[in-house]
Amino acid sequence: MEIDNSRSPRSHGDGHFDNGDFKLLGKNVVIEKGVLVFHPESITIGDNVYVGHQTILKAYFKGKMEIGEGSWIGQQCFFHSAGDIVIGKAVGIGPGVKIITSHHEDVNITEPVLYQDLKFKAVIIGDGADLGVGSIILPGVKIGKGAIIGAGAVVNADVPDFAVAVGVPAKIIRIRS
User: Fold this and answer.
1) Which of 109, 129, 163, 166 is most buried, by CB atoms within 10 Å?
2) E strands within 63-115?
3) Which listed residue (12, 53, 103, 104) is catalytic?
4) Residue 104 annotated in active site
5) What pLDDT is recorded for position 1?
6) Which residues face 166 on adjacent strands?
7) Spatial distance between the Cα atoms of 88 and 9, rounded to a whole number of angstroms
8) Most distant pair of Cα atoms in the chain: their distance
9) CA 72, CA 131: separation in Å to the nearest integer?
10) Average pLDDT, stretch 26-49?
């Protein structure tokens, strides 16, 4: 396996932002101290949203991130929206949740995975859903409205409306009624 030294690392910036940098920033939005925001011009945040301490909102130059009104994001979350993240209204997101929308292909074993093409897939979180502490949402997943994702779950497949999913990988254990 050969290392490609022509791929020089480059900075994504320091994550500091001004409120006017966002594509849209709603009213009564609380962004706590220590939040880092990358590519705020690709981020829309609705009214009455809370973003907890030390969260990283890492938009991407070609993706979008939309956070619906009334949503609550706990501290130390990490959202990477290269392939788009759409979070509905009144969504609860526990501390330490990670939402990822891209991955490297694995098509050539003679080339480091790091150097292989990126694939982008949107993550969509329905209105009123709740993501438990430390859960991880992988590229291409759709979580239905009113669904609950258990703490620490790794979600690699769609979760329907009002379902409760737990575990690694996440499995649906019941439908809320």
Assistant:
1) 129
2) 65-67, 72-73, 78-80, 85-87, 92-93, 98-100, 102-104
3) 104
4) yes
5) 64
6) 171
7) 34
8) 56
9) 10
10) 97
